[in-house]
Amino acid sequence: MLPLVGGAGNVTSIAHCMTRLRLGIQDRSLVQDQALKAVPGVMGVVEDDTYQVVLGPGTVARVTPEFERLVEETRRRAAGPSAPAASTAATSGAGLAAQGAALKARQRAKNATPFKLFLRRIADIFVPLIPALIGCGIVAGLNGMLTNLGWAPSVVPALTAVAAGFMSLIAVFVGYNTAKGFGGTPVLGGAVAAVIVFPGIAHITAFGRQLSPGQGGVLGALAAALLAVQVEKHCRRLVPAALDVLLTPTLTVLLTGLVTVYGLMYAAGEVSAAIGVFANGLLAHGGAVAGFLLGGLFLPLVMLGLHQALIPIHTTLIEQQGYTVLLPILAMAGAGQVGAAIAVYLRLPRNGPIRATVRSALPAGFLGVGEPLIYGVSLPLGRPFITACLGGAFGGGFVGLFNQLGDTVGSTAIGPSGWALFPLVKGNQGIGVTLAVYALGLVVGYVTGFLATYLFGFSRQMLTELNATADDTAPLVSPAPFTAATPDDTPPDKESVTA
C-alpha cells in the first residue's frame, strides 16, 4: 500500500480505528485510489478528514504497526522525500467503485460544516476508547453468566473489578482525549475530569444537593476538559513566560475544577439523567415506531456524518445502565445492507465485477463492517441503498417492538455490530431471550433487505445494462447511468459507467 499512497514522504500521520487505517496525506494527487482498492485485503477507501483505507476489524490492528515501521525504515533509508509512486495497476469494476468514490467525495464536501467538523472531533475523543469498552463489556457479560449459573464464585469479584475498573474512570480518559483533540495539554484535561470521579466529592453540596462521585459522567468530563483548554490558552497568552510553568497549570486546574464542582457536574448530571429517561421512555412507549425510524435512517445518518453525535449518548447510557438500548436497533441497518447485497448478487448473475465485490465484502458485512458494501455496491447503484435502509427499518422496528413489550435489548459496548455484537448483548430478561430477540431482528433485517432489493431494487433498464455480457471477465459498459440517490436529492448526470 505504501507506494500507492505516494510513498513514505507523502504520509504525514498514521492512526487506525476499528476498521480503517487513517492516513494524513501531503499531496493527494500522488494517491492511486483504484490500485489501492485492488490490493488483496483492502475492502475500500474513504476520503474524509483523513485518507482512510478500509481493512476490517483485527486486520487493521495488525497492519498499522507494520505500516508505521515500514514508513520509518523507508524514511531512514531515503533520508529525504520518497520516490515517485508506482504506476497504477489495472483494476476490475472501476466504474462502480468510481461512482462510490464520487458520491463519498461529494458528501465529504457537504460535511465540511463547522457543526459536522465539531461532531467529528467529538467522535475522535471516544473512538480510541472503543477497544477498552469492548473488552470490558465482554468480561462483564462473562461475569454475569458465571453469576447466574453460580459457577466459580471466587472468580466473580475479580472479574467484576476487571470489567468495572475502566468504566469507573472513563471520565478521566474522556477528559484526556478532549484536551488532546482541542489543542490543550492532555494531562490537564484528565486532571479536571478526575474531579468528577473522586470519592471525596460526596462531601460537597451544590445547588442545594449533595454531589455523588461520577455525577455528570462523560458529558461532565467533556465539558470540563473543553473549559480547561480555553482557560489554559488564555493563561498562555496572559501569564509571563517566566511564570508560565507554575501558574498556567495551577490556574487551569483550580479555576476549571471549581467550575466543574459547583456547576458542570450538576448540569451534566441533569442532562445525562434526561438522556436516559428519554431513551427508555421512547422505546417503552413507542418502541416499534422509534426502532423503525432509527433503523431505517441510520445509513443516511452515516452518509451525513450525523451518527457521530450518538457516540456520547451511547457512552452515557452504558455508564448509567450498563448498556445502550440504541445500538442493537441501529445495528439492524447493517443487516438490511447485507440482505440487499445478497439480492444484488443474485439479480446480476452475469456481472462478474459487482459479484466479486459482494463476495469479498459480505463476510465483513455479517460482522457489522458495512463500508465496503455501502460505498462499493449499494450506494453507487442507488435503489439498493434505499431498499437496504428499508431492511434496517423493519429489523429496528422488530427489536424496538420487543423493547416496548418489556424485553429490553442493549449492548454493553459500542463499536461492534452484526454478529460481532452477540458477545456484548445484554437486557433486562434472561440472556437467552435477549440473544434470541437480537438474532431474530437480524433475520428480519436480512430478509426484508433481500426481498425489497430483489423485487424493487432494479429497473428493467438497469438489469438489462448490468447483465449485458455473458463473459464475467469482460468489462461491462453501461450506456445509461445507475439511478443513484445523491445526498442532495439532485438527479445524477447521464454518463457512461464501466462496471
TrEMBL record:
The active site is at residue 17. Residues 479-499 are annotated as: Disordered. GO terms for cellular component: plasma membrane. It is found in: Cell membrane. It is a multi-pass membrane protein. Residues 120-472 form the PTS EIIC type-1 domain. Gene3D superfamilies: Glucose permease domain IIB (3.30.1360.60). The chain crosses the membrane at residues 125-146, 158-176, 188-208, 243-268, 288-311, 323-346, 431-456. Residues 479-488 have a biased composition (Low complexity). Keywords: Cell membrane, Kinase, Membrane, Phosphotransferase system, Sugar transport, Transferase, Transmembrane, Transmembrane helix, Transport. Its main location: membrane. GO terms for molecular function: kinase activity; protein-N(PI)-phosphohistidine-sugar phosphotransferase activity; protein-phosphocysteine-N-acetylmuramate phosphotransferase system transporter activity. It holds the Pfam family PTS_EIIB. Residues 1-77 form the PTS EIIB type-1 domain. One of its GO terms (biological process) is phosphoenolpyruvate-dependent sugar phosphotransferase system. This is PTS alpha-glucoside transporter subunit IIA. The lineage of its organism: Bacteria, Bacillati, Actinomycetota, Actinomycetes, Kitasatosporales.
